[in-house]
Specification:
The complex is a heterodimer of chains A (251) and B (275). Chain A is an alpha/beta fold and 251 residues long. Chain A has a single domain, classed as P-loop containing nucleotide triphosphate hydrolases (Rossmann fold, 3-Layer(aba) Sandwich). Chain A has 8 helices and 9 strands. In chain A, the strands form 2 sheets. In chain A, strands 5-6-7-3-8-9 form a 6-stranded mixed sheet, with helices on both faces. In chain A, strand 1 and strand 2 form a beta hairpin. The radius of gyration of chain A is 19 Å and the shape is globular. The relative contact order of chain A is 0.18. Chain B has one domain: Orthogonal Bundle (ABC transporter involved in vitamin B12 uptake, BtuC). The N and C termini of chain B lie far apart (43 Å). The relative contact order of chain B is 0.17. Classes of the chains: A alpha/beta (251), B mainly alpha (275). At the A-B interface, helix 2 and helix 3 of A face helix 8, helix 9 and helix 11 of B.
Chain lengths: 251, 275
């Protein structure tokens, strides 16, 4: 198995207060990891470190053997829903092309290969038919698909999703997870979420983050991990069919 | 109106209005969609320091405004992105500091500052040929730069964090965009003055934003709307013998008010499934 991303003993401090404490994780090809944890537990900080937006106070990050900034095109990133203005004068096609901005380079227009990549990415998320649509004319789920297409145009090896379901109707969530499962055949996916039950249903592995990262490289979480993360007893959910296995715990 | 065109000052005023409309249509579109209205206001007011310095040292105040607005743009942009001072705070502080410097410089300058009022509130009827030439050059720089960095500027406006993540020099591009705003302000000072500049940058683009769904069309529409405002304002101010800069802004403000109200009414009357 190729290691796509490797974090070694990452510490991040904001004003002397630790946001991440000694986080280590190796992300392998075809991993689909859900990272859950309470608000303020460092989920966004961890993503920023992986994206190279934030230099850790201590520790080392590698994306396919290089520092994140040197290998930015290998990571596709989908920010929390609606980090942009819905009425912005732009259509689907131009949003997706934006993902090729770096590739196209300064002082030159987009080229044929950029248009091709954008069309392929839209095809993969089943949105090519709507490429001329203005972004305000899309549903929440469709907007999310467009943002995923934008992340796919550089053919990343790792897809980072930050709370991707927070504004997607539950009715279309299933289709959305099917899409992620398809994409997972070609790339590793990390999904940050606070929705424990949804995450544990659809991902292959789960990690808990509350400053420290609890991760065993399996789909199993122990109740000790969850309790350490949330600092209170939590329902334990494990994989398998049927999906939900609840363990008794003291109230 | 036709016989008025024979006068040199009227020709200059019309050309100045056109040049102003081009700069504020193109750059104003970015200001509106990237929500940079208050930072633009800050840059405009800070440029007053340069006007004062021009009076004190005896060079063209517009040149001083150019230097000060560019300096203010770079300082505000850097402080807002690289320090923990909020951009709100840095804008407010530089806004007033520039004005204060201007007041001190003018106070130190010997004698009386005759056309000071026209720098603050504009007087499109007194734009000299030399300033028209300067406006032409600056318009050219603005159009060329936007043409060269169009895809970067539009991505930056849509989603700055994303452009940074994919490895595009977002911060440098942001500073460049702020410098273009500074240049736009210099173009507009003669027409509407430092205090009113922000309205002429914002209003044509804000109206265009209500009716267009692509950035290029928005820019084009904003330029046309701007030409209408400056020309109509000029004519009306001449007719009624009132201040031209303020007239241009009032026509713009009323137009935006009517446009917004009309859209609101129309939306109300649409069937629910279309709104």
């Amino acid at each position: 198995m190729t290691i796509i991303a490797k974090l070694e003993n990452i510490w991040v401090y904001y004003d002397g207060v630790a946001a991440l404490e000694g986080v280590s994780i190796a992300i392998e090809e075809k991993d689909f990891i859900g990272i859950i944890g309470p608000n303020g537990g460092g989920k966004s900080t961890l993503l920023k470190v992986m994206l190279g937006l934030l230099e850790p106070s201590r520790g080392k990050v590698e994306i396919l053997g290089l520092p994140p900034k040197k290998n930015a095109s290998k990571i596709g990133y989908v920010a929390q829903y609606r980090s942009f203005d819905r009425n912005f004068p732009i259509n689907v096609w131009n949003v997706v092309l934006m993902g090729r901005l770096k590739h196209a380079g300064l002082l030159r227009g987009y080229r044929k290969e950029d248009f091709q990549a954008a069309a392929e990415a839209l095809e993969r998320v089943e949105m090519l038919d709507l490429k001329e649509r203005h972004i305000s004319e899309l549903s929440g789920g469709q907007q999310q698909r467009v943002l995923i297409a934008r992340a796919l145009v550089t053919e990343p090896k790792l897809l980072l999703l930050d709370e991707p379901m927070s504004n997607v109707d539950s009715a279309v969530q299933t289709g959305f997870y099917d899409l992620l499962a398809q994409l997972n055949e070609q790339m590793a996916i990390i999904m940050v979420s606070h929705d424990i039950s949804a995450v544990s249903l659809h991902v292959k592995k789960v990690a808990c983050l509350n400053k420290k990262l609890y991760y065993h490289g399996t789909g199993q979480l122990t109740s000790e991990d969850l309790e350490a993360t949330y600092q209170c007893p939590v329902e334990l959910i494990a994989h398998g069919t049927p999906h939900r296995v609840l363990k008794d715990h003291p109230r | 109106m036709i016989e008025l065109l024979q006068y040199q000052f009227m020709q200059n005023a019309l050309i100045a209005g056109l040049l102003s409309a081009i700069a504020c249509g193109v750059i104003g579109s970015f200001v509106v969609i990237k929500r940079m209205v208050s930072i633009s206001g800050g840059i405009a007011h800070a440029s007053f320091g340069g006007i004062g310095l021009g009076y004190l040292l005896g060079f063209n105040p517009v040149t001083g405004a150019l230097a000060f607005s560019l300096g203010a743009a770079i300082i505000m942009g850097t402080v807002s992105r690289k320090t923990r001072l909020s951009s709100d705070t840095s804008i407010g502080v530089l806004w007033a500091t520039g004005m204060a410097l201007g007041v001190i410089f003018i106070g130190l300058a010997p004698g009386y500052a005759p056309d000071l009022f026209s720098y603050l509130f504009g007087n499109i009827l007194t734009v000299p040929r030399s300033d028209i030439l300067l406006m032409c050059v600056i318009d050219g720089i603005i159009l060329l730069t936007v043409f060269m960095f169009y895809k970067e500027f539009s991505a930056l406006s849509f989603d700055e964090e994303f452009t940074r993540i994919i490895g595009v020099p977002a911060f440098a591009l942001y500073l460049l965009l702020l410098c273009l705003i500074a240049l736009t302000i210099v173009v507009l000072i003669r027409a509407v003055g430092i205090v009113l500049v922000i309205a002429l940058i914002t209003i044509p683009a804000a109206i265009a934003y209500q009716y267009t769904r692509s950035l290029k069309k928005m820019m084009l529409a904003a330029v046309i709307i701007g030409v209408f405002f400056t020309t109509a304002g000029l004519w009306l101010s001449y007719l009624l013998d009132i201040a031209s800069g303020a007239t241009i802004i009032m026509i713009g403000a009323i137009s935006l008010f009517i446009s917004t109200g009309w859209l609101r009414l129309r939306k109300k009357n649409l069937p629910a499934n279309e709104s």
